[in-house]
Amino acid sequence: MTTENTMKFEAETTQLLEIMINSIYTEKEVFLRELISNASDALDKLRFNAITDKSLIDGAFEGRIKLEADSKNRILKITDNGIGMSRDDVVANIGTIARSGTHELVKSLEKSKSKDMPEELIGRFGVGFYSCMMVADKVTLTTRKAGEDVATVWTYNGGSEYSISDGTKESHGTTIELKLKDVDKDDGLDDFTSEYVLRNIIKKYSDFVRYPIVLPVEREEGEGDDKKTVTEDETLNSMKAIWRKDQSEVKDEDRNEFYKHVARDWADPMEHIYMKVEGTNEYQALLFIPSTAPFDLYSQSYKRGLQLYVRNVMIMEKSEELLPEYLRFVKGVVDAQDLPLNISRETLQNNRQIATIKKSIVKKVLSELKKMQEKDTDKYLTFWKQFGAVIKEGISTSYEDRDKLIPLLLFQSTADPEKLVTLKEYKERMKEGQEHIYYLSGENREVVENSPHLEAFKVKGYEVLFFTDPIDEFMVSGLFDFDGKELKSIGKGSVDLGSEDEKKKLEEVKDNFKTVLESLQKALAEHVSEVRISSRLTSSPVCMVGSEGDLSPHIERMMLQNKLDMPKQKRALEINPEHEIIVKIKERFEKGMSEEEINDTAQLLFGQALLAESTPLPDPAGFAKLVAKLMA
Ligand code: ADP
To answer: Is pLDDT above 80 for 416?
Structure first.
């Protein structure tokens, strides 16, 4: 039955392993933090599963992580009596890096060219287990899943293959045996078999881990002839819950290490938020905002949630009931006093206390963000760059938090290319007679900045916000107004900036152009809903304008690319009656144009309007031919 197999890693995994093996990242000791975090997770999993299946453990469950060091042979072993893995689990979890971001990680590491491990890159992708390749030439993992008899042995000693075979193991859990590389302090390779070194690493990174991390330590006992050396297991970590301590006495470094453990991040958090609530619904919460957004924050597979403890016992690893979707980047723990220990996921959803805790977490996080915005602009800008898009999501998805979210919004605008503005600042700068808050959507800053739609607004001196993030379009559905001023897209619907006199003049122009407009419209019936006189253009001849409820063309394109079913939208073509080419067209039209000439002219104007806003032309070759004809 025993089968030994040599198996090949996927190409990307091998690449990642090689990067790890050759890493010159100097804090190599973090490998131990990663392995201990995995061990602690495996213990949590067993404890959870044993609640419903007592047969998994014998008697009372006593989770423990054991370190064993053999200096002579340079071997370090890390053993947990957790859930363990089946052979299939090992192949799936250790043999492949299942995470969707691996490809991007390898790419970005290759791009950075140096073999140094940019901490935040590794952190964002979380290469936990593989970090032991930084310190070991050979890794042997022996594991037995709780409830099963056969153990699995996995070995790797470089290259693109690993071997896997059946084996034996006395109890459930996992042992990872590392054959350590030679000590080289300049390269971050300390003596990881030294009691002193191990003690320090555990204190530094894993002190708060909730299971004892033990190390057999030799002691002298007795006097004179009775003197002998005995070996005793010593627990290296305090296991103290950091959120239960007086926060003024907790060192930043310790809190940061706790964060890294909870969030599986390699970088320090941007901010921590502490809450201690007393009374009928007593709880403590220690929350963190990461310094960079995880790579999968926008993917379907991202799971939000906080660790939920009840009276110091962890009952859930990721409780999503404690956070709204748009705060999914927040990490941390909540420890509640008054919840039943056996609370299940289903009952959590309808629990009043949980709902109350969630509400106050939202309130607290949003008020801390506001504070950051007011007191530390640079930090807030960094936050905004990482998480602004998620906050914008909240505007359209969480109506109840809208009023607290709106002041947090920042936008690019026509006012200053370097600065982001709040709606409050925008409103304070509004010109006399300006009725609305104006915005323009587009693919990127360059496109919107050069858009013909801006012309009349520039002349008037009205500031226009730029919406260049795909989420912006959806956000508007929840934003619609600010402090009594409606938000209006200048790329859609009619604009009405003129005085009474100007409006009268416009009506006259419309009459004069009636037949020209009708002919152009006939020629473009397939592509546009209408051809009309523009009140928004001053220097360009033409532009495209959607109707009020339409999506912007770049969003429409994005949705079509994603194969989302939607009707094709037709927009209006607006022409500028004062532009010299329009004036010339009118003259020629009045002298008499052939049908072909009208057709060509219409196609040229339409193509121009699309190009000006970076929308791909429906028939680029045809357009090129027309331009060539015109030039000839
Ligand atoms: P992560 O812990 O971020 O998921 P790792 O590469 O560290 O990534 O581990 C991959 C997976 O391997 C884990 O999710 C877990 O399922 C499994 N694993 C790792 N270490 C252990 C362990 N000591 N006991 C049981 N399973 C483990």
So the answer is: yes
Q: Is the pLDDT of residue 375 over 70?
A: yes
User: Which residue, by CA, sits nearest to atom 12 of ligand 1?
Assistant: 93
Tell how far the Cα of 326 is from the centroid of ligand 1, in angstroms: 28
Distance 260 CA to ligand 1 centre (A): 16
Closest residue to atom 1 of ligand 1, CA basis: 128
177 beta partners: 77, 140
Q: Ligand 1 centroid to 38 CA: how many Å?
A: 5
C-alpha of residue 405 to centroid of ligand 1, in Å: 37
The residues near 93 (Cβ < 8 Å, ≥ 6 apart) are 85, 129
**In CATH, what number is assigned to the domain containing residue 112?**
3.30.565.10
Report the residue among 93, 162, 206 best suited for mutation to probe ligand 1: largest number of ligand atoms under 8 A from its CB. Answer: 93
Both tokens of residue 266?
Answer: 């390699």
CB 291 within 8 A of CB 270: yes
Residue 123: the pLDDT is: 54
Count of domains observed in the chain: 4
Among 45, 129, 131, 169, residue to substitute to test ligand 1 (most atoms within 8 Å of Cβ): 129
Q: Which atom of ligand 1 is nearest to the CA of 130?
A: 6
Does 197 share its domain with 263? no
Residue 180 has pLDDT above 70, yes or no: yes
Tokens of 539: 């220097």
Rounded CA-CA distance 295/519 in Å is 52
Ligand 1 centroid to 154 CA: how many Å? 14
Q: What percentage of the chain carries pLDDT values higher than 90?
A: 53
pLDDT at 67: 98
DSSP class of residue 131 equals G
Atom of ligand 1 minimally distant from the CA of 82:
24
Instruction: Report whether 295 contacts 104 (CB < 8 A).
Output: yes
Ligand 1 is surrounded, with C-beta below 6 A, by 34, 38-39, 42, 80, 82-85, 93-94, 126, 128-129, 174, 264
pLDDT of residue 236: 95
- Same domain (yes/no): 572, 426: no
As a whole number, mean pLDDT of residues 140-147 equals 96
Q: Does residue 281 share a domain with residue 262?
A: yes
Half-sphere exposure of 477 (CA within 13 A, CB side): 12
H or E element, residue 313 = strand 313-319
Q: What is the mean pLDDT of residues 581-610?
A: 92
Q: Looking up tokens 């056996």, which residue turns up? A: 342
φ, ψ (nearest 5 deg) of residue 151: -100, 165
pLDDT for the residue 482 = 94
Instruction: Name the token pair of 518.
Output: 């009708």
Query: Which range of residues forms the domain containing residue 93?
Result: 4-235
Please name the residue whose Cα sits nearest to atom 9 of ligand 1. 129
Rg (Cα) of the chain, in Å, rounded? Answer: 32
Nearest atom in ligand 1 to 39's CA: 23
Residue among 209, 163, 180 at smallest CA distance from 74: 180
Same domain? 299 vs 405: no
CATH code of the domain in which 477 resides: 3.40.50.11260
Map tokens 């993030």 to a residue: 469
DSSP letters, 146-177, are: TT-S-EEEEEE-STTEEEEEEE--SSSEEEEE
480: left (phi over 0), alpha (psi -120 to 50) or beta: left
Alpha carbons 32 and 205: distance in angstroms, whole number: 9
Please return the burial class of 294, using the count of CB atoms within 10 Å of its CB with bins 0-12, 13-18 and 19+. Answer: buried
Residues 109 and 202 in one domain: yes
165 part of a folded domain: yes
